[in-house]
Write a structure and sequence with these properties.
Helices cover about 50% and strands about 15% of the residues. Strand 6, helix 7 and strand 7 form a beta-alpha-beta unit. The N terminus is likely disordered. It has about 325 residues and is an alpha/beta fold. The chain has 2 domains: about 230 residues, 3-Layer(aba) Sandwich (D-Maltodextrin-Binding Protein, domain 2); about 100 residues, Periplasmic binding protein-like II (D-Maltodextrin-Binding Protein, domain 2). A 5-stranded mixed sheet has the order 2-1-3-10-4, with helices on both faces.
């Protein structure tokens, strides 16, 4: 009888310690792109492998055409968080006073200005051309501006931006355009489909301090749903570590089918991206010096209005969500 009572007490304690899924906090997170861009598969891995559920949070992944639209939805209160361009976060805080903060970063952008026209693959050849981006003002558009200004001595006025969402590689394959801002997996897909790509400039060549994306939320939402954000972040941390383990590459490539890549291309991309360091594994991906240098670059390139004050690191970044989530994963 005594043993039975102890067992019942233990089961009751476990039930109280781990709330039912219906009682778990809910966070709506927007991965960019329809289909989602490859960097966002970390969220799909966390969902597919049960990491969000493991850490007691109900995460809904709601796709947007791009990170710019997703960030607007965060500000409007339609969703809780988005994966959006770091440059966009900087400009929104400085130019519009938007109360967004970053809680997890993707520090290494892989944007490249590429072309399938191998005979016209220099900066001089780009002038006057149509160039595929996600949307004017979006992550690829911002990368294009940085590459043109920092590497090619041109401006956006010297080219024609074509809004393609996450379908730039498809447009190059179809011959609709010959130039575009590409990710590494875009290049892999185009070349695996039989076309060659010449890389004109990369964003990191134009500015080594470039920072890629940040998971952003409003200060008010973080205050109201902090526990949910910490638990969501724990799921992302677990996913990043799962993805970094070579024995999981095939499983990650299978999950990456959500991007529209076939398995062979996805598997190659997973291995390349892990080696490249696309996903931060052992830190929050928001190094203070890199962020501050990138803020200074945004001022230099005119993304912050002359009359506005650029944000400080403390204003822009909340490192405590990742810190507490990392402790949770450690347990």
């Amino acid at each position: 009888m005594f043993r039975k009572a102890v067992l019942i007490a233990a089961l009751l304690a476990a039930a109280l310690a781990r709330p039912a899924l219906a009682d778990n906090p809910k966070i709506v997170l927007a991965p960019p792109g329809v289909p989602p861009i490859f960097i966002s598969i970390i969220a799909f891995v966390a969902q597919d492998q049960g990491f969000f559920k493991k850490y007691g949070v109900d995460v809904e992944l709601r796709q947007f055409d791009n990170g710019t639209a997703a960030a607007r939805a965060v500000v409007a209160g339609d969703i809780d968080a988005s994966m959006s361009a770091t440059a966009l976060l900087i400009s929104q805080i400085a130019n519009a006073g938007v109360p967004l903060v970053g809680i997890y970063g993707f520090p290494k952008p892989d944007f490249e200005l590429g072309t399938t026209n191998l005979q016209k693959a220099t900066c001089d050849d780009v002038k006057g051309q149509q160039i595929g981006v996600d949307t004017p003002g979006g992550a690829r558009s911002i990368a294009l501006k940085a590459i043109l200004g920092g590497g090619c001595h041109l401006s956006l006025d010297d080219v024609q931006q074509v809004a393609l969402g996450s379908n730039t590689s498809s447009a190059l394959l179809a011959g609709q355009i010959s130039y575009g801002i590409l990710h590494l997996d875009d290049v892999s897909e185009i070349e695996n489909r039989g076309k060659k790509v010449a890389i004109i400039k990369t964003v990191r060549e134009s500015n080594p301090a470039s920072h890629n994306l940040i998971v952003v939320a409003t200060k008010d939402d973080i205050a109201k749903k902090r526990d949910g954000f910490v638990r969501m972040m724990a799921g992302l941390i677990a996913a990043a570590r799962f993805m970094a383990d070579p024995k999981n590459a095939d499983r990650v490539a299978t999950i990456a089918a959500v991007t529209g890549r076939d398995h062979a291309i996805a598997l190659s991309a997973v291995k390349d991206y892990v080696k490249y360091g696309l996903w931060a594994v052992d830190n929050d991906g928001m190094d203070q010096k890199q962020i501050e240098d990138f803020i200074a670059f945004q001022v230099k390139t005119g993304n912050i209005m002359d009359s506005k004050t650029p944000p400080s690191y403390a204003q822009m970044i909340d490192p405590t969500i990742w810190r507490d989530a990392n402790l949770l994963v450690g347990k």
